[in-house]
Write a structure and sequence with these properties.
The chain is built from seven helices and 13 strands. It has helices spanning 124-131, 158-173, 192-202, 246-255, 272-275, 281-297, 303-310, and strands at 27-30, 37-40, 67-76, 81-83, 86-89, 92-101, 107-113, 136-140, 180-190, 213-217, 233-238, 260-265, 316-321. Strand 11 (233-238), helix 4 (246-255) and strand 12 form a beta-alpha-beta unit.
Length: 322
């Protein structure tokens, strides 16, 4: 599967227990001056990274389409909300904000997964911006992560949220009036949401085979070794993250046995880049659109051009593996 590198989001809480390592893969780094790839030892956790000069030229993946939004009241009537061994609700209400671009579709579907103690509206700037690049973006509210839902927060049910993501995809695919290309699907998550995105993309028992690309910003290490996969991952984290240790994304880079593009935002914290108004914000927005354009949307420059463009900003370092 042709894959291209790119950047993404940041926010939520951290802290996973056991970690695991995956089989070694070929690790590459592109030197900005030559564009040539050099082999490295993937056992070295940080792999090889690079920094460079002026930002890349605008990409055809960035479109600036007008966007409308609506709340879709999705409910999974087959599964309860359970926390601490108690049933808090007999069914899982998953109100989902859907941002839809103007113009002729159908458009690829991106499910965005919020972080701990956050809801979809905390990410409306990022989701609306991504939708304006030609994606239907759907962000569900999870009952045990979104404080607006009124339940006690409980981040121990991430596998349930991975199942929620699959439910949302199925519900939106079958919903009249949604202009969605159901052959082009991606999941993007931040913090706890990044953990869920990894489960949807690579987790045993939670993987959704419909997903064509994953973006994980500031995830915890996976607690089980993921199966080998062809689904590309964009892994992103700020080097000055004050919530999730920066070493967490380094562990995920080693764990995931798939094409991985690991973008470090130099000097960035956890939530500010995705919230907006930081030097990393436009880099994050553009890189996300570029990655999804090259992986699920089938538009934009090829892999080598993407890698060179992503590594050309002084605000990032990039490492990749096949």
């Amino acid at each position: 599967m042709a894959v291209a590198a790119v950047l993404v989001t940041g926010a939520g809480l951290a802290g996973c227990a056991t970690t695991a390592t995956a089989p070694a893969r070929t690790v590459r780094s592109t030197t900005p001056a030559t564009g040539r790839a050099t082999g490295d030892t993937p056992a070295t956790r940080g792999a090889t990274r690079r920094t460079a000069g002026p930002p890349p030229a605008p990409s055809p993946a960035l479109r600036q389409l007008a966007v409308t939004s609506a709340v879709v009241p999705l409910v999974d009537t087959t599964r309860p909300v359970v926390s601490g061994g108690r049933v808090l609700a007999d069914q899982r209400a998953l109100p989902t904000i859907v941002w839809t671009p103007a113009g002729p579709g159908p458009f690829p579907l991106v499910v965005f997964v919020p972080g701990y103690d956050k809801g979809p509206l905390d990410y409306q700037r990022f989701c609306s911006t991504l939708a304006s690049s030609g994606y239907v973006v759907a962000a569900p509210s999870f009952p045990l992560e979104d404080p607006a839902r009124g339940f006690p927060l409980d981040r121990t049910h991430l596998a349930d949220e991975a199942t929620d993501v699959s439910f949302v995809i199925t519900a939106l695919e079958g919903r009249p009036g949604e202009d969605i290309d159901d052959t082009r699907l991606a999941v993007v998550g931040h913090s706890d949401g990044a953990d869920v995105a990894l489960l949807v993309g690579y987790g045993s028992g939670t993987r959704d085979s419909r997903i064509g690309a994953v973006v994980a910003d500031a995830p915890d290490p996976m607690t089980a070794i993921p199966a080998p996969s062809h689904v590309p991952l964009l892994l992103v984290q700020g080097t000055a993250d004050s919530v999730v240790p920066y070493t967490s994304s380094q562990e995920v880079f080693a764990q995931v046995d798939a094409p991985v593009f690991y973008l470090s935002l130099i000097g960035a914290d956890h939530f500010p880049p995705i919230a907006g108004g930081t030097p990393w914000t436009p880099v994050l927005d553009g890189a996300t659109a570029l990655f999804l354009g090259a992986t699920v949307a089938g538009r934009g420059p090829g892999d080598s051009v993407l890698a060179a463009g992503l590594s050309s900003s002084p605000l990032v370092r990039l490492a990749t593996k096949d």
